[in-house]
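Example noted here:
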Amino acid sequence: MIDGSTLGWGTSTALHDERLDAVAEHLLGGTADLLLDLGCGSGALIERLLLESSVRRVVGVDNSPFALYAARRRLDTPRNSGRWTLRAGSITDAQKGLPAVDAVALVETIEHLNPSHLSQLERAVFALHPALIAITTPNREYNRLYGLAPGEYRHPHHRFEWERGRFEAWAAGVAVRNGYDVQFEGIGPAHAWYGTPTQMAIFRRPML
């Protein structure tokens, strides 16, 4: 098994930081009254978002009690008081009881789902009608540069990893079905043939 820090899974790697910075930049580019982090893990993205004074509230969702415990320890500071909430649950479940959600992040989460559950995730997320949704996931093409064998995933808990064309086709279909625009960005060092290690789709609700 390859050390996850080599591939950017760890919370202190350059790729992980670059990924969080890229997502945070998009989420903070519009109204930031309520932001939702699905699959929030130990709260690293939430911590970044709360550095911006315009962010009134961030809600994080994760199904790991260990991750939520770590997130609480990270976020429980006087400066952040009253500005964050954590929920235990699946990212495919409807997030009930929330006021209007401005933006949603799913950072390296969709690949942990069985592909058959992606339609359930889509319904749960787009039912919130956020102005922006940012989704990142590994680019399988880049795995060759990590020395991974064909069909080998970066993490043992991944259920799939998509090439750029497959991810873009899926995201384009999601955008059409839900009436959103979508654009794509790469995150991390780029290779001429294999692209970047992380790929990101940014969905935006068209202005009326």
Remarks:
- Residues 4-204 form a domain with the Rossmann fold fold (CATH 3.40.50.150).
- The radius of gyration is 16 Å.
- The longest helix spans residues 164-178.
